[in-house]
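Can anyone check this?
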Amino acid sequence: MKKARTVFVCQECGYESAKWMGQCICGAWNSMVEEKIISANENDSRSRARVAGDDGPVQRIKAVKLSEVKSGNFTRIDTGIGELNRVLGGGIVKGSLTLISGEPGIGKSTIIIQAASNVAEKYGKVLYVSGEEAEEQIKMRGDRVCKGNIQNLFLLAETNMENIIAVINELMPEFIIIDSIQTMYSAQLNSAPGSVSQVRACGNELMKLGKVKNIPIFIVAHVTKTGDLAGPKIVEHLVDCVLNFAGERNQELRIIRAFKNRFGTTSEIGAFEMLEEGLVEIENLSKTFLEGMEDGAEGAVAGAVYEGTRPLLLEIQALTAPTNVGFARRTSIGIDSNRLNMLLAVLERKAGVSLISQDVYINVVGGLKPEGTSTDLAVVLSIYSSYKGKTVSGKTLALGEIGLTGDLRSVKNCEKIIKEASRMGFSRVILPKKNKSTIKEPPKNIKLVGVANIREAIAEFAS
């Protein structure tokens, strides 16, 4: 058991003495305050109280007042990529660990080397540690996608964690990238790289390194067949931020979302377009989702969600077809299947539209999986449009959550969504009455239609 020792610390200059002094060496009188501290064990390499790989003095164990801790609000690093900064909460926080995951070939290495080159040009040395690719391969990608000066971008093809830490202590970079955590190993363990013990040990070493030296670290991780993060769950608990990079390989759109963020919100998304010269930011995401929407098409209705700090308008498509054999099929892309089954039950019970003998297919165009329930009304109206053969104007937007009683519930940030709809050229919005009553000054070029339940919404939609 560690024993605490007593010291006297000057509150003016921080001078320590084993004995109480009436006057400190700085000249201050009666400024010595008694403190009890615990010295860190020099042989314990796992403790964060000891600097990893340093031969310098061991830090002491001491609790500090929360009021004395400097805030990290103004110590963020600009990645030079606006959409990535948005998802991170304004940039990379110094000393933070960020885990980025995604399917192979989706663009993880592309976006991090673009961010690395931007940070290297603006802040100083950046170390890119690769356990999967040779230095020549990274150089080829860097020549293709990096636009700035890469003189301060250093590459290291290594998987031994002790060697990596030694290089970091010598180089002292401003930003570190580990690609990937599953290829790293510690010589202190006999297990193979990628095993639970190795991933846990390497993750702990990186966490201690980043927190003690105040260096932000990006860690690339693999995913399983189902898209979940591979490896032990402890990695997600260790890091400060978990980013997921998703998209379809046959499409150019890429979406990055934060599943965990200790320094920002988890509702923000970033949008990119994969081009030959790398990932390019998409500023007008609503236009991208709606650019192929046809005016007067059956089964196509525009909906909206509010992601983070911006509204997004989406095209929701539905198709109904008679069931030939067996039970009716319910297939959805982008909408939760349980939510779809609930909406179909409400549509049958509360609006008298029976789809028991109809296969129903739902698709959110663009590959985005909207969170929340604000797209409920658009889903129901698109199904009704396809089943009844009703065409709808491409300038109509449906917005609202549907309850089990068939009533329409209000949605958050409705006013901002309507402003976005007005900017995108929509002329009519079907929305809950509660939301309409809260909007004092709607845009002049748009008509707001407030409805109380699903029957009123269908009646307005069919008129």
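Reply from J.R.: I decoded it. The longest strand covers residues 310-322.
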